[in-house]
Amino acid sequence: MVTCILPFHLPYFLLYGFCTVPFHNHALASCPLIKNILLLDSEGKRVAVRYFSDDWPTNSSRIGFEKFVFSKTVKTNARTEAEITLLDDNIIIYKFVQDLHFFVTGGDDENEIILASVLQGFFDAITLLLRNNVDKREALENLDLILLCLDEIVDGGMILETNGPLIAEKVTSHSMDAESSLSEQTLSQAWTTAREHLTRTLLK
């Protein structure tokens, strides 16, 4: 087992260049592609996952992969630094924090440093969004933020962002926009109700 130390963040395009190639054209791709990002609990059960590859076409095959990866990594010491393993021709970068296990999977020809930067960006964003309370309970209570976080990191297998604070900022912005929209809708409904009540009063 090789320990991967990544004390800094590098935007993926500085290492590999921009890419607009779809995932199914992997052979032609000139940039790293992510197969999946997994967040599991200390028993190997799902907290939040995103798949971007057809390697696991069914939910049962995905659950099987998650159990396999968990069983092969659970006894390792990946709490101080991220570690790397090669399983079934896939490079997997992973890190454990409290009762949460973070995983990023790429093909065996992918750049490990970039995969590690995706993992670190995901972890840093989650740490900020959960206000340093990185555990399963907090994750489940804020699952919507975590899913938004995954969407900000990777789209269709292509890396969008690896900077944790920037990812968290985008997620927070989306969340605030949604809350603002809901508040505006609530105020509008309240005004409509009040106006209808006033109209009925005047007509009496």
Describe the structure.
A hairpin with a 2-residue loop joins β4 and β5 (90-97). The chain is 47% helix and 20% strand. It is an alpha+beta fold and 204 residues long. The chain is elongated, with a radius of gyration of 21 Å. Residues 1-18 and 20-29 have low confidence and may be disordered. The N and C termini lie far apart (81 Å). The strands form 2 sheets. The chain has a 6-stranded antiparallel beta sheet with strand order 1-4-5-6-2-3, sandwiched between helices. It is found in: Cytoplasm; Golgi apparatus membrane; Cytoplasmic vesicle, COPI-coated vesicle membrane. Oligomeric complex that consists of at least the alpha, beta, beta', gamma, delta, epsilon and zeta subunits.
List the keywords.
alpha+beta; Beta-Lactamase; 6 helices; 8 strands; disordered N terminus
